[in-house]
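Hello again, I could really use a second opinion on something today. I've dropped the whole record in just underneath, so have a look.
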Amino acid sequence: MNTMQLRMRKKLFRGMSYWLSLVMAVPLLASCGSGANQANLPPVDESRTRTASPAPQQAQKRGLNTGQKVAILAGAAALYYLYNRHKNRQSAGAEGKYYLSKNGRIYYRDAQGRAHWVTPPKEGIRVPAEEAERYQEFQGYNGRTTGRDLSSLPEARQAPSQSQQPYPLPQ
């Protein structure tokens, strides 16, 4: 073979190697884009960054009738109260449906399907006394530090498995 043929053959092989590299790299680069499936995103734990603005406290008057008495729910009692108020809603987001995970935490899903952990306000939730009675055995009822947590609930033990959920449950 003469020198001219070797040069031509070398250029041909170089061109083919560039083309094959490009063909093999395109699927790899195309799969790195942001797809529509965001179900595998980690849950968002907003409890670390949330700063709750203190609600204006009204001075409690002595001698209120039973219709005006309230109980303060905090901690597990507040979470269970919020869960019971939101568990049958159909919409998504913070005002939508709440779920109870197997580890006893409450979460909701946003429009993209990402799980957000629910954290009760530090100042507690003011609830009518009659309605709050069903939460008196939980931690946080009227400032109490003892009582049940949510992981002991039958609903937490019977939480749907990941195969029954449209998106994976947060761990």
Observations:
- The chain has a mean pLDDT of 75.
- The longest helix spans residues 3-30.
- The two ends are 67 Å apart (CA to CA).
- The longest strand covers residues 70-73.
